[in-house]
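Give me structure tokens for this 459-residue protein.
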Amino acid sequence: MQAALDYAARNQSRFLDELFEYLRIPSVSSAPEHRPDMQRCAEWLRDALLKAGADRAEIHPTAGHPIVYGEKRISDTAPTVLVYGHYDVMPVDPLDEWHTSPFEPEIRDGKIWCRGADDDKGQGFMHLKAFESMHATGTLPCNVKFMFEGEEEIGSSSLTAWCATHKEQLRADVILVSDTSLLGPDTPSITCGLRGLTYLEVEASGPSRDLHSGLYGGTVVNPANALCKLLGTLTDDTTGRITVPGLYDDLREFSPAERADINSAPFDDRRFASSIGLDTTHGESGYTTLERRGIRPSLDICGLWSGYTGPGAKTIIPATAHAKVSMRLAAGQDPERAASLLTAHIEQLVPRYGIRVKCTPLHGGYPYAASTDSAAYLAAAKAMEDTFGKRPVPFYSGGSIPIISTFQRVLGIQSILMGFGLDTDAIHSPNENFPLENFRRGIATFPLFYHYFAESLSK
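Here you go.
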């Protein structure tokens, strides 16, 4: 692999010039006025795949934005790696908070500053240049397929159906993804798990209209009071566990060894709490903060409203009250089942509080957990250890990337999430950036992954 690494080092300046071309295209998927830019970006990516050495690269139209597919086949017996990324980016608002033009990249303080520099153009581009480095030096040990979508930032609505239709074309041994972060600049990590999500809106209703709180107060149920009391019972004050019956039945329990690996990451509870203005952390008893946010479910009220909220006073008993309730789900849990269990539990509690309740599911996604003893994980760990000089930590993220679990369910392929971003990269915010060193590290790490992965499967 040294030839590929030397090639990348020699072509570093050109790689950055090409990345800057890519970043200058304002591929904001959520904005109708940028639809021509989305097409232009897909065409640029197709051409870049061909220049890098792909046998073929093509644009697949969808009901939304196009999907770019490319492949390089070296042997019928070689393993196949499917690279996933997305070329769409978030809007840049508020524009006045950017220090530089959001679509005019520049290098400053050792970082690339631009919308998409990290999420996900910069990280996806690392794969393209690592592939070129291997192809140009005749050191590519695997067949490679590329799949870049243009709707990740708006829910990937077209990709699930496209994957099902192209399942045979996408056949691979592993999916390689860089759309996540490291635990720190000098703390390599591989994201092994993502939490799923169940999100409901709850509407509680009582009297047929808002009532005068003096004439009716103390004689009727107040839906706002009742809904707050009901929601307060959904978690146990002592244990921090969710009280919904059956919710934990399918939850995967991690072994002591796995938990020890998770907690081997450098983490300071006090510093974590202080960074968000708190004195201490809180959650399910018997688990660390890293475990609570990565491998355990949680329930939160994300929105709560009722009655009069304007200036001054209006003395009423509101006719309705509303809440938005989110449950993050851990490995083994099903979002549809979780939504049904939560709805049934709330409905079972309703008579106790004298209100009528309507629960409406709004959003959901499956959790994802990858094995840490698979050939792909071990190859990724060894590659990162070579690059960073230390063994990477398995990391279980509290966030969700629903398309990753979709890949497993639709394509039957596990993903390895080798991200090189940092929490300080300001993705989705003004002044997005990506450390230049991490961009180079990614290009240097992927050829090592390919080498170790192919080597492990040939034994």
